[in-house]
């Protein structure tokens, strides 16, 4: 079977790439990185993203969106990674997917239209400090009345988000409540929380990656609205989608890092020859090209598998995120080394790519976690 992006998806990628090169290049990125006290959320860029329709890519058409799938969203995520673009695009799209898939019609109507138009910023808060992804890493508890208590760490753009989708463990459903309560023993749920609500405290956290902003969320009896279609399956779906968007961003980072490195080493002359012609560099860069290409295709398939509900979705996501982690880590490290002494300086742009990759490698499952998942789904099932 021949598997590739459609002409429309390739045109979307070219449109995003050209727009960002013209409206938000690396000089604009540097301004955000250097402004450590700023919110990391350029208002003009956000308005433009909303006007272009990139926030509504996965919003259903009956809520004013484009009604496309994750395969289309990853096209945008890859270009945002290539441009190391700041802002809460990915987490806003992810929160919108949670509301659209697990919320009531009223919740979807209140969130998805404004979200797609760029009038609302959203994010997700899914694990406690140092916790693994999934139920075991959740440090927020919901009581029977929907009040939340606990701490979430590393929440992207919580300080500017209008709404936050929070994962919380839940008490057992009361006797006689029936399946409609949406809760069971050891259950989890997703809750829609307003940033400025009672019992919500947000504290900014340091991040190695200046192209994003992180915060810790402390909840003390904070009232929140449960997404009634949520549960363990909805949380797992949200984590898979987050992993694919992070992997797409990573392969965008990796491809841009490799392309810029090849261009630099083609132009830089030493001992009368371009340094890129030296065998040690040329062979390593060729190996990196193969690794990045394989990661790009793994991400494409994982997004397709999620869109189509294929039975190998879990394996596809684990392969995609682990390969993207490795390719981006290797490509950005080579970018710094193969730019020579200038590559190690703050004044050069190499560290934007390296630090963004470092952060995203740990987002939605690091390499070890996803390789363990690959082992569980392949080796552990043999025999």
Describe the 3D structure:
This protein is α+β, with helices and mostly antiparallel strands and 383 residues long. It has three domains: 7-120, Orthogonal Bundle (Butyryl-Coa Dehydrogenase, subunit A, domain 1), CATH 1.10.540; 123-229, Butyryl-CoA Dehydrogenase, subunit A, domain 2 (Beta Barrel), CATH 2.40.110.10; 233-381, Butyryl-CoA Dehydrogenase, subunit A, domain 3. The chain has helices spanning 7-23, 26-34, 43-52, 70-82, 89-102, 105-116, 232-267, 279-308, 313-338, 350-362, 367-377; strands at residues 122-125, 140-142, 147-156, 163-169, 188-194, 200-205, 214-223, 225-226, 269-270, 273-274. The chain has a four-stranded mixed sheet, covered by helices on one side. A four-stranded antiparallel sheet has the order 2-3-7-6, with no helix packed on it. Helix 5 runs antiparallel to helix 7 and helix 9 (313-338) packs antiparallel against helix 10 (350-362). It is globular and about 75 Å long. The two termini are 29 Å apart.
Spatial arrangement of strands, main beta sheet:
1-4-5-8
CATH fold call of the largest domain: Butyryl-CoA Dehydrogenase, subunit A, domain 3
**Beta-strand proportion:** 5-15%
Oligomer: single chain
